[in-house]
Every structure is written in structure tokens, then in C-alpha cells.
Amino acid sequence: MTGDQRRMSIDGENVQLSISPKALAVHDPSKFNQGGQINSSVFAGDRDTMQNGAAEAVICNSKKLQDAMQEIGLKIKHHEDNIKFLKAQKNILDDSILDTQVALGRYQSASEPGSQNNESSNRRNEEEIIEQILKHDKSAAGIYCQLKTHHGPQVTHLPLLKDVIGIVALLGKVDDDNLSRLLSDYLGLETMLAVVCKTPDGIKALETYDKEGFINKSSGLYALGASIGRALDARFVVICLGNLRPYEGAFIADDPQRRLALMKPRLPNGETPPGFLGFAVNMINIDSANLYCATSTGHGLRETLFYKLFSRLQVYKTRTEMLQALTVITHGAISLDGGIIKSNGVFALGYSEVEVKFPKSSGRSNLPENYFDTESRLKELKWKRDRFLEDLHREQTLLDHAKFNFEIKKQEFVKFLAHSSSFATPQKFPAGGEQSTPIS
After folding, report:
1. Residue closest to 149 by CA, chosen among 52, 54, 76, 230
2. pLDDT-based confidence at residue 136 (cuts at 50, 70, 90)
3. pLDDT, position 329
4. What are the residues whose beta carbons fall under 8 Å from the beta carbon of 259, sequence distance 6 or more?
5. Which of 201, 295, 197 is nearest to 238 (CA)?
6. What is the pLDDT of residues 352-405, one digit of tens each?
7. For residues 428 and 380, what is the distance between their CA atoms, to the nearest angstrom?
8. Are 133 and 144 in contact (CB under 8 A)?
9. What are the DSSP E strand ranges found in 106-230?
10. Which residues, by range, are in coiled-coil regions (predicted)?
């Protein structure tokens, strides 16, 4: 008789029973209590074994899903970092392209046929501006222009005017006639006719006072005007460069006009607003005589006079694009179709005729020696920008795909947790923690 077989006598007959070893465990006397019932610890042990196995499976599958989600998450961060880097590089290229275009813009017409005629036309344009100023015969600007017209450069040798640099309208030139009109309209006639001096001593020379504090019209610019038949009888604006706080930032590298390296406006997405052309202060062309040392401290007109007048005034192609960029306009803006924003919340509407404006640039006389190198560099910058845009598009596609995969894995994980939660729910037993199984 083997270990897993038993013979029993039932009703006088021998019966051979085959008993499974697992069944023997059920008949283990230690598993019964005194009442002949199975101990609840037996079921607790079996239940713990089953739950431990299920928990291990849940943990294993959960870890696999979490590892997959973590791997996709790392890919997402990698693509996001790449996009951030590419956008930063593209923005740098955008700034360089914009600065180079501004620097080259006024020279492009110089190489075209008839450029000599353009120069002659521009000289006539400056003469017309002076004629417009002379119409204001009782103004300080009118008196100064008449003296300069008749005496030429020798006017600067007069003790009264030796500290005077000139009139605002004649100290800068603009490439485009329409832009000139808009910038002049923005400043207003009073400012366009303002006299510009180097030091406070120049202001004292233009106007003196008697003991009672009244203007002494027998001296200064009043006496000079009377001597040429132009009585000065109105207020006039004088700008003292020595009292202005100059721009303290950097200049655009290799720019013969020493334009200011101002930070471009940025939308929340990091892009330059559509239609943004540049800053007005950099669109004024200055004669070389006043470009570097207009003041005793070595500052030029751009970083003193015109930075004071225009500050960070932005220029846009259209009024619509200008209005769309309101959130990044801090010091006013103008658009080439006539829109003007003086400051935050202050708009100039309607239309006005401009009598005195900036003359038009001559072009060829200020053509830089490295013009063609700069033009080649512009093409190279645009090529690099196109490559960065391609890389940006590719990285964005990969990022969108990774986010899609992450969302799928996330949904799988949520469903898995919901399904596996049943394994963590304990089974309920009768009060006392025991389950009775009577043996018949």
C-alpha cells in the first residue's frame, strides 16, 4: 500500500481510495478547533498567499507602466529643451537680420540707376525744409536758418551761436519721405524747430534777463534777430545736450551709423511682433560730424538728442499690427499708414499737414566700405534662420507625438489602477474574524 492510497471497509467491502497530497492538508487536525470547525487562520493564510501573488503582479505591471511613462516624459523634456534653445537662437538671428536690414535699407537705392539724380533731389529736399523753417520768420529757428543761409559755416564763429549745433529738423535725415513726415508729426512743430546747444552756457547766451527778471531784448538772440529784421516775439524750445542723460547701452556692431543695440519687443511666445520694423531712434541718419563727438563727453547725437526725443518709439508697417502689439509697446509707436501712439493709453487720431520734417538721406555719400560684405552676411543670416525654422518644425512634431504617446500611457495607467484596486480591497468575514465550515 503506497503513501497516497488507503483501503477502507465500507459495508463489508474493501474500497481503495486515491487521496491527493493537497487533500491531506485539509484533514490536518491542527487546522480544526475544538468545535470541529476549521480555523479562520487557514483561510487567512491562503488569502494572504493569493493577495501577495496578486499584489506582486500589480506592482510589476505598475512599474512597467511607470517606467514607460517616465521614458516618454524624458523624451518630452528633451524636445522641449531643444525647442527652447532653437527659439532663443532664432530670436537672436531675427534681431541680427532686423539690425542688418535697417543698416542696409538706406543704401539699397544708391546702387540703382539714377542715384546721382536722387542725391540732387535730396539736396533740393533739404533746401525745401529750410524754406519751410524760414517761413516761421519770428521764430528762433527761422533767425538761425537765415543767418546760416547768408553767412554759411561762419555763423558758428559768432560768440552768441558758437555753442549752437543746429535745429532739430536739420540734424538728422530719414530714408523715406513718409517716415520723415510721421516722425515729425510725432515730435510736433515746436520740437522740430527747437534749437540744440551743447552746454548750459549756450542757453545763457541766447537769452539774458535784467535785474527785475524780465527778458533783455537788447541782447542775445532777440538782438540778433532785430539786426536782420526778424523780431523774436514767441517762446522757443532749446535743448541742452549737456543736461541730457545719454543712452548707456551697447551699439550695433560694425554699424557705421552707430545705431543703438536696443532690445526688441517680445510677445509672450518669444516672437517679435508682426510688422515691427525697428526703433525710430535708429531710423535717423546723422552726419558724420555729429555722429561721435557732439558733446564734450564724447557722446553723439543719436545717444543724446534723438534718444531723448524718441526713446524706444517703435515703428510698425500698419496700424492694425501696431494695435495688436499694444502689450509690448512701452514708449509709444507709429505705423507707416499714419497710426500714432504717444504713450500707454494716449492715441493721436486724425490727420495733420506737416510743414517742417526731416530731410531725405542722400544715400551714396554714406555708403560704407563693407556694404557688400554686410549684404552677404544678411543672406547668410536668413539662410541660418530658415534652417532653425525647419529644426523647430521637426522638434515640434516630435514633441506632439511624444505628448500623444504619454497621454495614451497615462490613460492605460489610470485604467490599470482602477482595475487592480480590487486586489487591495480586504474580504469581509463574519463578526469575530472566523468562518465556520462544519464537517459532516
Report:
1. 230
2. confident
3. 93
4. 99, 102, 103, 251, 252, 282, 302
5. 197
6. 778 888 888 765 444 555 665 676 678 788 888 888 888 998 999 999 988 898
7. 76
8. no
9. 164-167, 195-197
10. 69-96
Class of domain 137-355: alpha beta
- 258: which residues sit within 8 A by CB, 6+ positions away? 251, 252, 291, 292, 300, 302, 303
Q: Position of cell 487592480?
A: 420
pLDDT recorded at residue 50: 54
Asked if the model's pLDDT at residue 270 lies above 70, the reply is yes
Q: Please, what is the angle between helix 40-105 and helix 371-420, to 10°? A: 170
- Grid cell in block for residue 174: 530719414
- What is this structure's pTM? 0.60
**Three-state secondary structure call for residue 123:** helix
Cell of 382: 536668413
Strands 5-10 and 13-18: antiparallel
> How much is the average pLDDT of 227-250?
88
- Residue among 189, 197, 269, 295 nearest 239 (CA): 197
Cα separation, 368 vs 111, whole angstroms: 12
Q: Taking 70 as the threshold, does the pLDDT of residue 257 lie above it?
A: yes
Residue 364 to residue 16: CA distance in whole angstroms: 122
Q: Report pLDDT for 321.
A: 94
**With 70 as the cut, is the pLDDT of residue 251 above it?**
yes
Q: Which residue in the block uniquely carries the three cell numbers 464537517?
A: 439
- Beta strand 346-348 with 276-279 is unpaired
| Entry field: residues in the chain | 440
Distance CA 294, CA 301 (A): 6
Q: 93: which DSSP letter? A: H
